[in-house]
C-alpha cells in the first residue's frame, strides 16, 4: 500500500510504497477513507516532541473494516469505524476507574512506535516502520488494536467522522468533561484561546452547554470569522493588541474576567494570558501541546488568594467509546455543526502540502482522502 512516511526530523513527509502485515489477535485491518490533519503532528515532524522513526503519520481518521484478527468478535468486515489514538485495554487502573484516555496501552504505543504489544505491522522489506500513536492513518490502510476503534453510524460522512475522533473530542470534551464537571456553564463566560480545529470545537462545546459569553482570541481574521459563525459572542485579534491588551480586553468584555478559559495553542505565553484573564475562582483548561521541555510560570499568590485553577486535559478527558457516538448523534441532530469545521481536502500525495498550509494558518480542519486521485 501507499503511506506517508517521516524518516527524519525536519525532512519533508514522503509517500512511499510500504508493506502492511495482517492483523494479529485483537487487531483490525481498516481501509482508510479520511484522515484529519492535526497541528499536533507538527510537533513531531519538527522534533519538539520525539517519536520513534521512521514512522507512518496520521492519528485522526475513519474508514471501513476489511479484516479482523483472532478474538475480535464485535466488529465485522464492511463496518464503518473511527480511529482513536488512546486505546482502551479495559483492564488497567485508569480504565477501570473511568479514565480511559490515561490507559497504559496509549503510553506503550506512543513510546514504542508499535501497537499495544510494542511491535509494528509496517515495514519495507526487512526495514521496520513505526506506527504513529498506534494509528498511522495517512495511508491507504491501517492495522490497529481493537481498543483504538469506535463503530460509526453509516450516514456520517467520513471526513466529519475523521475530525470528530481527535479535534472535536478534544475541544468539546475540554468544555463538557472538564470545565463543566464541577459547575454548570449555562449563562457563564468562556474564553477560547486559539481558533484552530480544537479551539473551534471548544467554541461549539461552549455553545452546546449554554455559555452566556464565548470570547475567542486568535491572530487570524478568517479564523475569528469562522468562530463567530460557530457561535462566538465576541472575538479578539491578538495581533492588533499591545502586550497585556488581550487580558485587558477580555476583562472589559466580561466585566472582570472569565469563568473558564480553554487554552488550545500550547504556548507558555498564551497559557499565562488565559490564567490572567480569569475572574477569581475561574479555571483554565490547557489542551494545547508544546515542546517537550516547555514550562509556564504561574503567580503563586494569585493562584491561592483568588482560588484560580489550572488543569490539563488530554483528548478532552473523554471516554471515546462513549463520547464519540454521542458527539456524532449531536451532529446528526443539528446541534454540533461539524461540517463547518472542514477545511481543504487533499489526496494522499498532498500530505506535505497539507502540513505547509497548516503551518501557514489554513482555516478549518484539512482532511486527507487516501482514495482520491492526485
Give a written overview of the molecule.
It is a single chain. The chain has two domains: 2-152 and 337-369, Quinone Oxidoreductase, Chain A, domain 1 (Alpha-Beta Complex), CATH 3.90.180; 167-315, Rossmann fold. It is 29% helix and 26% strand. It has helices spanning 40-46, 93-96, 104-112, 158-179, 197-208, 221-229, 245-254, 268-276, 300-305, 320-332, 351-359, and strands at residues 2-6, 14-17, 19-20, 27-36, 55-56, 61-68, 80-83, 122-124, 127-131, 141-145, 149-151, 189-193, 213-218, 234-237, 258-263, 278-286, 309-312, 342-347, 365-369. The strands form three sheets. Strands 4, 6, 7, 10, 11, 18 and 19 form a seven-stranded mixed beta sheet that branches. Strands 2-1-5-9-8-3 form a six-stranded mixed beta sheet, with no helix packed on it. A six-stranded parallel beta sheet has the order 14-13-12-15-16-17, sandwiched between helices.
Q: Can you tell me the CATH class of the largest domain?
A: Alpha Beta
Number of strands: 19
Q: Note the beta-strand portion.
A: 25-35%
Number of helices: 11
Q: Structural class, from helix and strand content? A: alpha/beta
How many structural domains can be distinguished in the coordinates? 2
Q: Kindly report the average pLDDT value.
A: 95
**Residues in helices, as a percent range:** 25-40%
The CATH architecture of the largest domain is Alpha-Beta Complex
**General form:** globular
Alpha-carbon Rg, integer: 20 Å
First-to-last CA distance: 15 Å
Largest sheet: 7 strands, mixed
Q: Can you tell me the CATH superfamily of the largest domain? A: Medium-chain alcohol dehydrogenases, catalytic domain
Uncertain stretches: none
Quote the CATH topology of the largest domain: Quinone Oxidoreductase, Chain A, domain 1
